[in-house]
Write a structure and sequence with these properties.
Blueprint lengths: L1 E4 L5 E4 L4 E4 L6 H5 L20 E4 L9 H10 L5 E4 L2
Parallel strand pairs: 3-4, 4-5
Antiparallel strand pairs: 1-2, 2-3
C-alpha cells in the first residue's frame, strides 16, 4: 500500500487495485478570502491526475470539501468516482 500526503489533511491510499483520496484541497480558496490562512505548502499539480476511485470527505470545512478541487477531479476522471461524505 502506498500512502501519499496531498498537503493539508489530504491523503491518497493506493494498493494497486483501488485509489482512495481523502480530503483533497488543491486550491487556496480559503487563503484567498482570509490571508492569514494561506496555504503554507505548495500543491503538486500532478495530484489532479491521480484518478481516484473513491473520494472521502471527512467534513464540510472548505479545506476538506473544496468544490473547485472536486470539480477538477471529476472533469479529469476517466470513470465514475464514488464520493463518501459526512455532514
Amino acid at each position: 500500500m502506498q500512502v501519499t500526503w496531498l498537503t493539508q489533511a489530504g491523503l491518497l491510499f493506493d494498493n494497486g487495485e483501488i485509489k482512495i483520496m481523502v480530503d483533497p484541497y488543491f486550491t487556496d480558496t480559503v487563503g484567498d478570502r482570509c490571508p492569514e490562512k494561506k496555504r503554507r505548502v505548495e500543491m503538486d499539480e500532478s495530484f489532479y491526475d491521480a484518478k481516484p476511485d473513491v473520494i472521502i470527505i471527512t467534513h464540510a470545512h472548505e479545506d476538506h470539501m473544496n468544490i473547485e478541487t472536486l470539480s477538477e477531479l471529476f472533469r479529469r476522471a476517466e470513470k465514475t468516482i464514488t464520493v463518501l461524505c459526512s455532514e
